[in-house]
Amino acid sequence: MAFVSKTRGINEEELVGGHTELYSMGYANYVNGESTSNRKQQPLFSFGLISDVQYADIPDGRSFLGVPRYYRHSILVLQRAVQEWNNHQSPNFVINFGDIVDGYCPKDQSLKTVKKIVHEFENFKGPVYHLIGNHCLYNLPRSQLLPLLRIQKDKGHGYYDFSPVPEYRFVVLDGYDISAIGWPKDHPRTLEALRFLQAKNPNEDKNSPTGLVGLERRFLMFNGGIGEEQMKWLDGVLQESTRLKQKVVICCHLPLHPGASSKEALLWNYDEVMSLIHRYNCVKLCIAGHDHKGGYSIDSHGVHHKVLEAALECPPGTDAFGYADVYDDKISLHGTDRMTSIDMYFNSKADL
């Protein structure tokens, strides 16, 4: 794989089999979808989260698996989320985990629709951090999309980091760094992605997993990979976080662990990324979207992986958003309606 870094490889079975070390490496509590957090303890800070709004002013439809999608209703989910965040939950900031507008949005409406959804996020009374997803890139090229999402990065990259408090750092990855969508057709990253897909997926339709077996089913055009430059950047950030004794939350539109996600939704080189992450003890949680049903797992190194349920697939009158309370020893996700609540406790033996 041309775009991955030369970090030590990791056994994919080690990642998939992470549940076996569940209680020795860290653990989570969730009972009937409700968090078992001790609410008397005061969090260091809180943040709101939502994923895969995928709004479009078109009739309801279905995914390729036949799951209903409520394109016009999803903006109402976002509006209710912002209202809750502002009036009741009061998070310090909000993270949007990507795909704010659906790929079926008529292309002559793409710019207006992206601006419309960004405006809804801006009604939140605090900072909003955006991730880019595949549906964002179906609608607008990076050159237009990133400024609208307030992502200021050289060369059109969508990765960055921020520290809301000295004890924590959030690292936002660009899962479509190497991708056949979003970059100009003759861009080196587009050409590299097309060569990669040609080698990995024999189907004429590169979004089809037909004939691909097991974890190979992730080699689809609607996914992407992280390039070598971004891997070097991530390595540097994790080194610095270790030096500063910070705990790290990784945010990526594409899931990074097979135990938390469908195989078809994974980052192309998730194994390389996790191999790098596992060289350090600072990463406690990886959060993703993309796989609309949601999911959760703990890997063999005690890193939690949470995939968020999609706002798009909420029937009218239902919701999928939440907020997370962040403590020194855990992160408690409090989900609304279809978003699962869970307490994620950290490995107390980790040497930061």
UniProtKB/TrEMBL annotation:
Its EC number is 3.6.1.13, 3.6.1.16, 3.6.1.53. Its cofactor is Mg(2+). Keywords: Hydrolase, Metal-binding, Zinc. The keyword Magnesium does not apply. The keyword Transport does not apply. Residues 47-293 form the Calcineurin-like phosphoesterase domain. It catalyses: CDP-choline + H2O = phosphocholine + CMP + 2 H(+); CDP-glycerol + H2O = sn-glycerol 3-phosphate + CMP + 2 H(+); ADP-D-ribose + H2O = D-ribose 5-phosphate + AMP + 2 H(+). SUPFAM superfamilies: Metallo-dependent phosphatases. It is an enzyme of class 3 (hydrolase). It holds the Pfam family Metallophos. Belongs to the ADPRibase-Mn family. Monomer. PANTHER family: MANGANESE-DEPENDENT ADP-RIBOSE_CDP-ALCOHOL DIPHOSPHATASE (PTHR16509:SF1), PTHR16509. This is Manganese-dependent ADP-ribose/CDP-alcohol diphosphatase. The lineage of its organism: Eukaryota, Viridiplantae, Streptophyta, Embryophyta, Tracheophyta.
